[in-house]
Amino acid sequence: MTRSRVTPSPATRSTHLALVLLVVAVAMIAVLELVLGLDGATEPWHPVLFQLVAAVYLGAGVLAWWWRPSNRLGLIMVVGCGALLLGALGFTTVPVLIAVSTVGATMILAVMVHLLHAFPSGRLRGRLSRWTVLGGYAVSLVLQAPQYLFAPAPPPYHLLGVADRPALVTTGLFVQAAAGAVVMVVTTVLLVRRLRAADPPRRRVLAPLYSYGVVAVLFIPVSANVIRPLLDVPPETIGTAQLAVIGGVPLAFCLGLLRGGFARTGEVEELGAWLGGTGTARTTLVEALSRTLGDPTLQLVFWVPDTREYVDASGQPVDLPSVDGDRDVVTVDLDGRRVGAIVYDATLLGDPEPVRAAGRVIALAVDRERLTAQLRAGEQALRLSRERLVEAGDLERRRIAQNLHDGVQAELVVLGLDAQRIAADPAATPATVQAATALRAGIDVTAGELRRFVYGVMPAPLLERGLAAAAEDLVDHLPLRTRLEVSVDGQHLSSAVESTAYFVLAEGLTNAVRHAQARELAVRLAASDGTLLVEVGDDGVGGAHLNSGLGLRSLADRVDVLGGRLRLDSPAGGGTRLTAELPCAS
């Protein structure tokens, strides 16, 4: 089956462009930093390794941000890239950059703690979690200060030193270690609680992910302060191991987002963010739902309780597919009542649970659009009912015209023949012949008036040959020069639309001939995009109004019954143009 591609919204495209520009900007900064670091580093591979790990954070962060614009995990990983680039400034020979690097040397630890608390939604859940993450940043940034403010340092590291106080350095290290331990204990407790609350599939993803994250955070201080002096490991080896462990964190979190149902959960979260957004560039609800679930063939239908049927957004009734087919249905409920249903491709989305989750997110929006669809369905039913009244009236017109033509008019013809036979009788007296001749003339006049009346009630050309032929016949009998433009070929026009269009033409032309003092008339009939356009224009004196006569007012009502619109433009001295727009879609 060929599937159409779901087009990203303008807001999504704007986010993607911003991310591309972000990657370009960070890459330029990294290249500049690498050049400065290679000049000052005794081991060139040290700054290169820092840049590689920073690139991993940037790539994982941008990828997560691209997938989930409203999920802050991508942003946090990009901040981690910035923290690593900040630490890599220490390889340069510029004193100010080295000082900045010293301040943010351990910030990456706080970023990793932040990732642990924010997974998978990117948001911190609960006050304790927020305070713990804030404490992590305080440990890495604020409590790091005694180590560079009160420790003696040779140039170019002496810029931040304010005094040589070894006791303060020792105390600061102890406070920082204790505070860091509290942060990690609280983090571990919170993560264990989340593991216990998660369902088994997600627990299988969260357990190794949380374990690796906690071990990674603890590995940095433990390897530097315990493993290295205890086993006499070279600092370069410890640094390489630390960077390797740090670099695996964003990869682990990205993999976690793609497993255990977190991928589709993230899509549903994006849908919730879309519903909470504002702006005129928002896509429609069904487009957002299609993009969320990855099914471009998805349909959203609405439940109408009064008629106990489903309708689409335009109010048209919709039949749901059979359960055993390739399409499946999930109902959308709000406060225990049915408001709609999602029809999706069961071969593409084998698990209905993500569809149900999306339905719960959009239930309120579906109910709002359901009311709109129900109103449209009611308007359509009312319009069809009124159209049936018009058709019934036209049918009665045809019946009356037929009866007059076949009954009264036929009787008049017979009477006329009788009068003619009496007048031609050789035995008739002159008075009888004169009376019969006068009677025949009167019968002919009456028959002519009756034919015109029947033609006005329902013209024969309209009944027999359609609107175009009736318009040509109408124009041929006009005493003024008239331009006629007809382009309705191939269009299916209902009898109600045809008769209404004809009466608009007849009324407009009659008024123009009688009142406009016009020299030339113009008639146009054109059907396109489901609308029949009827125009009657003249170059007369103008000054006409829709409410100036009963004929125009009744025409306006008739056009409105069909869901159309009647306009009259008639400026004084500028001619008159009567325009009717009638829906004519099949």
Provide keyphrases for this structure.
586 residues, alpha+beta, 5-stranded antiparallel beta sheet, 5-stranded mixed beta sheet, disordered N terminus
Question: What can you see in these coordinates?
Answer:
With about 575 residues, the protein is of the alpha+beta class. The chain has 18 helices and ten strands. The strands form two sheets. Strands 3-2-1-5-4 form a five-stranded antiparallel β-sheet. A five-stranded mixed β-sheet has the order 6-7-8-10-9. Strand 1 (about 300-305) and strand 2 form a beta hairpin. The protein is elongated, with a radius of gyration of 42 Å.
Tell me, briefly, the overall form.
Answer: elongated
Largest sheet: 5 strands, antiparallel
Helicity, as a percent range: 55-70%
Unreliable stretches, pLDDT < 50, 5 or more residues?
1-6, 260-270, 276-283
User: So how many helices?
Assistant: 18
Mean pLDDT: 77
Measure the end-to-end span: 29 Å
Strand portion: 5-15%
Number of beta strands: 10
Order of helices and strands: HHHHHHHHHHHHEEEEEHHHHEHEEHEE
Radius of gyration: 42 Å
Q: Structural class per helix/strand content?
A: alpha+beta
How are the strands of the biggest sheet laid out side by side? 3-2-1-5-4
